[in-house]
Design brief:
- By secondary structure, this protein is an alpha+beta fold.
- The protein has a domain at 2-38: YefM-like fold (3-Layer(aba) Sandwich).
- The protein contains four helices and three strands.
- It has a three-stranded mixed sheet with strand order 1-2-3.
- Belongs to the phD/YefM antitoxin family.
């Protein structure tokens, strides 16, 4: 992890961006205290497609309206 002052960061922003793109993490300090940390974004995990999920769900035998009416009319409510 590279640490630079705010002045250095302003002067060398293009070089810092190259470091970050290469996977380096950069901390910017002001008066000796860290005020910012810059790092390349983590890649998001690829989520399965919604169509695949729907294809694996069992087919419903009852309409949504009938299901809600059955729940509403049950003794629980």
């Amino acid at each position: 992890m590279k640490t630079v002052t705010l002045e250095q960061a302003q002067k060398q922003l293009d070089k810092l961006i190259d470091l970050i793109a290469a996977g380096e993490e950069v901390t910017i300090t002001l008066d000796g205290h860290p005020v910012a940390r810059m790092a390349a974004p983590r890649l998001l995990q690829q989520l399965p497609s919604l169509a695949d999920l729907r294809a694996r769900l069992p087919m419903q035998t009852e309409s949504a309206g009938d299901f809600i009416r059955r729940l509403r009319d049950s003794e629980r409510y």
